[in-house]
Amino acid sequence: MDKQSLLDLLRHDARESVDDIARQLGADAEAVAAALEELEDDGVIRGYQAVVDWNNVDEEHVRAQVEVDVELDRETGYEEIARRIARFPEVATLRLVSGDYDFFIEVEGASMHAVSNFVSERIAPIPEVTKTVTHFVMDSYKEEGIELGDGDDDDRLSVSP
Amino acid sequence: MTLGDQLSDRVKQVPPSGIRKFFELAEEVDDVISLGVGEPDFSAPWAARTAAIDSLERGKTSYTSNRGMRELREAISERVTRYGQEYDPEDEIIVTTGASEAVDLAFRAFVDPGDVVAIPQPSYISYTPGAIFAGGEPLPVPTRAEDEFKLTPEALEAAGADEADVLVLCYPNNPTGAVMTDDELADVASFVRDHDLVVLSDEIYSDLRYEDDHASIATHPGMRERTIVFNGFSKAYAMTGLRLGYAMGPPGAIDAMNKVHQYAMLSAPTTAQYAALEALRSCDDSVDEMRREYDRRRRFVLARFEEMGLDCFEAKGAFYVFPEAPDGDDEAFAEGLLEEQNVALVPGSVFGEGGEGHLRVSYATGMRELREAMDRIEAYVSG
Question: HTH asnC-type domain spans which residues (chain A) (predicted)?
Fold first, then answer.
């Protein structure tokens, strides 16, 4: 079982059935199921989620990208700070990045107030955090490789030579 | 006088296209899922599109040399070495408005009135009319499902192709998805040499082979001097609408085709030539990605047909599979499927002798539609 092909397929559409995946890879369904389990057990696949276009959801949903600067000391490393921040359910994504700041956080909340409150009351007070910059997401055009919006119609002739 | 009465015999001799008829039927059905499309569902690689736009911005809107831009011919010459083909960009390559134009040029350059043009079938629908428009007499050479629709010397012999002047070849094949290996082509090459035929080899699907590498008859001993090879950018690079192809052959042959081309076409679209040049230079990865995607769909469709109990040989090229219609009547099946399940595919008989009783199923359609279409076909088959 070629695990890279399996991952390619799942990253494109994780809801495909094991049978359909097997058909496309020319493999046994059992072999695909076993490979999937292995990928999960090895921590390669950490979960399967829906890609939501929040523009089409009635309820308000606010997202912000937060840049966080930290100051390390002898006892505290990035890992430790990250573990603390990652625990908050409001934090959807947390990455250590190169460049002008240290952590990139994606925060989700029901309102701008909730999100800014979260940053000022939960993130900023962490002793190692020296600075935060919050960017509210105003619109999104592509998520997880999927273009949002209406897309283009297939304008090919329905039957052609 | 009405112009209708004045039509040339050649034009009158060619019946309306069966594809056209089916297209019109499909157009009347709402929410149709079409597996009847003979072109990629992808768009041309971004770099190729950008190169086209860039050329327009730089004002590159004049004719090119009749044979196509020198740089493009050089890039083509370089490219085809991967198929074992060697052609001099100077006088052995001509860039045309789609491979279709190249095929037409070859018919006009090599077919005299009354010349017999052997056309293995089922085949792409342009060859027979093209031969007729050039004054030739098409000779159908049926290929068979039990041979996986490969052309054999026996099939050529049985059809009387030993008397033919020209042989058209198209592998990987539209509509069957059949491919031919070097060994199998060697047998055809031997027949061709024995009976002194000219070969027109349409290799437009050369990059869409899933189990092995492309093989060309032109690379066999004694074949280069009697073969014109056609290729282009439509299928591999998803550039059908840009209309760009090319022909390669010995110098005198390309000169003759250029003679027709310079009067009929002058030169292939300049913008498309810039896109094609960039495609050759930097878009191999896109082609690989599209090929991988087609291959996954191919396996999926073949597996579903097998599970449904539809007989289907393992097509290894292009983006078609060619299953048997369950009750043998391809037209009735295709029309019934369209009416009851809103799925369009093309009855095999449209593609000539040997195609009847089969269905051309194109997998140049996204997985979601493909899955839904296969479910509907299954419902129709078992319904």
Answer: 1-79
